[in-house]
């Protein structure tokens, strides 16, 4: 019990000391050393900027099924996505360039799925992310691929595919188009 108490004190102490150490380090760094590279137009940081803004989401048959808002935050290092379907379902995503891999990574959460995937632009300029979808009901996880393709009319085609172990193919889970929101 004493060991656990001491560990708790050490852990709490670290949470108190780390901000102080970071603050002291920042004071000793040149002013431009802490400027975020995420705000630059350099690749890969600007690769996913085409999704920024407010969008209406449509099924392939043209019926509006929801709204999305993509916002750049944290000095450009994070793109958040808020999804609201006309059914009342919602979802929230966070996309960022993983400093460890240099790839775009998205963490998505909805009442049905938690998704963690990563990737980048393909040769056609589409953002392609692959990873795993985890059903929130405890079901079996499955490989997932998300594709965001800019269209000539300004819309974005979005496709989400699940990999079938049985057929060894990517099958469409969900597809649609986003168009700039008209107020």
Indicate the CATH class of the largest domain. Mainly Beta
**What would you call the quaternary organization?**
single chain
| Regions with little confidence, pLDDT below 50 for 5+ residues | 3-25
Beta-strand content: over 45%
Q: What percentage of residues falls in helices of 4 or more residues?
A: 10-25%
* Count of runs of 4 or more consecutive helical residues: 1
When the domains are counted, the total is 2
CATH architecture tag of the largest domain: Beta Barrel
* Alpha-beta content class: mainly beta
Tell the overall outline: globular
Superfamily (CATH H level) name of the largest domain: Calycin beta-barrel core domain
| Strand line-up of the largest beta sheet | 1-2-3-4-5-6-7-8-9-10
Q: In this structure, how is the largest beta sheet organized?
A: 10 strands, antiparallel, barrel
Element order: H for helix, E for strand: HEEEEEEEEEE
Number of strands: 10
Q: End-to-end distance, in Å?
A: 60 Å
